[in-house]
Each structure stands twice: as structure tokens, then as C-alpha cells.
């Protein structure tokens, strides 16, 4: 006397739905039926079900299990591949836990790279959004340079002036602020060259420049954008 579908599912520690799905995808052979038409499962079906359950718990997909056949041979390569995938997953989760720990310890917002730490505390919403966007287009080296810049550079009076600059500021005000900001930006360019030069080709540099220009256009008001354009122009003509 064999087992019914429900009984074998209970014995194998799985569900009726799973047993039926394994039949549908060809992982489990259909059993013979009794005279009353009900399926009658035997020991071989139970062993196969337990094997499938074991492999899925290890992390194999049903497609992987199907590719292994009946599992009588030792699946060394499949196990090594799975082990590598699990190792990568563990590493990713460990990085995520470390990042969460930093966010919790320093009460940081989640929209910024955690390595910025306390350096991000004074940033305006526009600056934070700009950094978040920049992290998607800058190379890892350039992004590291940007983070180092923010961490190691003290705030200057011109920073607050720029942040609070009214959108309708006159040209004299924007010119004055740009002239005072330009030397500071020039010094930063000298201290952190990777931020401005770490691109493989001229095409990459142009792509990044265009992307950052779009972000500036979206995030800063007209007067602030005018100041940034003037700062760039002043430094472009500087002999240093």
C-alpha cells in the first residue's frame, strides 16, 4: 500500500502544491494509480522528494536540480558553483550590515554614501541630491576623491552664501561671489586631481560633464547656476 499525495507531502516536509509542481516540471515521476484512481506514491518518490527539498534548502534552483538528473552522481561542479554564489551573497550581506551599522551609529541619512559620515551633516538638500546623482556617473576613484574632499575641507563663508543665494540675485552679486569662490575651487582641483581627470577617454569625460551639468540645472537656482558658470570660466582662463 502506497501513500497519497497529501501523505507523501507530509512525510517529505513539503506541500501538496510543491509535489504537483515537481510533477509539472519533470522533477518527480508520476506514480501509478490505484483502482480507485488515486495516486499511490512509493519509497522512491519519497526519497526523490527529500532529495529535492535538501537541494533547494542548500540553494539550488529547480532548474539546477533538473540539470543534475536523478542525483546519483556527485555534483561537484554544481556544488562549487553554488558555493561561489553563496560566498558572493554572504560578502554582499556583510557589506550591507556594515553600512547599516554606520548609518545607525552616526544617524546618517540613507540617500548618501555612508563613507561620508559626519561630513554630510551640513549639506543642503540640493547638495545631497547632487552627490547621490554623482555617485552614479563618477568612477570609483573620482567618487573616493569627492568623498575625501567633503570630509577634509572645512566650510568657508562662501559656502553659506552660495547655499542661501536668492534666485533673483543681480549680476554684480553673482560676479562677486564667483570671484571669491574661484580660488577655492582651483585649490581643490589641485588637491584632488582624480575628481577632475579620472576618466578613461575624452568621450567618458564629456559624458560625465554633460550628466553633471543636467544635475546642476535641475537642483540649483538660476543665480547659483550663474555663479558656477562664472567660477568655471574664471578658472578656465587662469594660467595655473
UniProtKB/TrEMBL annotation:
SUPFAM superfamilies: Putative DNA-binding domain. It comes from the Bacteria. One of its GO terms (molecular function) is DNA binding. Gene3D superfamilies: 1.10.1660.10. It holds the Pfam family MerR_1. Transmembrane segments: none annotated. Keywords: DNA-binding. Residues 1-71 form the HTH merR-type domain. The keyword tRNA processing does not apply. InterPro entries: DNA-bd_dom_put_sf, MerR-type_HTH_dom, MerR_fam. This is Transcriptional regulator, MerR family protein. It comes from Rhodococcoides trifolii.
Amino acid at each position: 500500500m502506497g501513500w497519497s499525495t497529501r501523505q507523501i507531502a507530509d512525510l517529505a516536509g513539503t506541500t501538496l502544491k510543491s509535489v504537483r509542481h515537481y510533477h509539472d516540471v519533470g522533477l518527480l515521476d508520476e506514480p501509478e494509480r490505484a483502482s480507485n484512481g488515486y495516486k499511490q506514491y512509493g519509497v522512491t518518490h519519497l526519497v526523490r522528494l527529500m532529495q529535492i527539498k535538501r537541494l533547494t534548502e542548500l540553494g539550488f534552483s529547480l532548474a539546477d536540480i533538473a540539470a543534475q538528473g536523478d542525483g546519483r552522481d556527485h555534483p561537484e561542479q554544481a556544488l562549487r558553483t553554488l558555493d561561489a554564489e553563496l560566498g558572493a551573497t554572504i560578502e554582499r550581506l556583510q557589506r550591507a550590515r556594515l553600512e547599516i551599522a554606520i548609518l545607525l551609529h552616526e544617524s546618517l541619512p540613507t540617500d548618501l554614501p555612508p563613507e561620508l559620515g559626519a561630513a554630510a551633516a551640513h549639506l543642503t538638500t540640493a547638495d545631497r541630491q547632487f552627490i547621490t546623482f554623482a555617485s552614479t556617473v563618477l568612477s570609483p576613484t573620482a567618487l573616493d576623491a569627492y568623498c575625501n574632499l567633503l570630509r577634509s575641507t572645512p566650510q568657508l563663508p562662501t559656502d553659506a552664501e552660495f547655499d542661501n543665494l536668492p534666485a533673483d540675485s543681480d549680476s554684480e552679486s553673482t560676479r562677486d561671489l564667483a570671484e571669491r569662490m574661484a580660488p577655492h575651487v582651483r585649490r581643490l582641483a589641485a588637491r584632488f586631481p582624480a575628481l577632475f581627470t579620472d576618466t578613461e577617454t575624452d568621450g567618458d569625460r564629456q559624458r560625465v560633464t554633460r550628466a553633471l551639468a543636467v544635475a546642476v540645472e535641475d537642483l540649483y537656482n538660476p543665480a547659483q547656476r550663474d555663479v558656477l558658470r562664472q567660477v568655471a570660466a574664471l578658472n578656465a582662463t587662469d594660467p595655473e
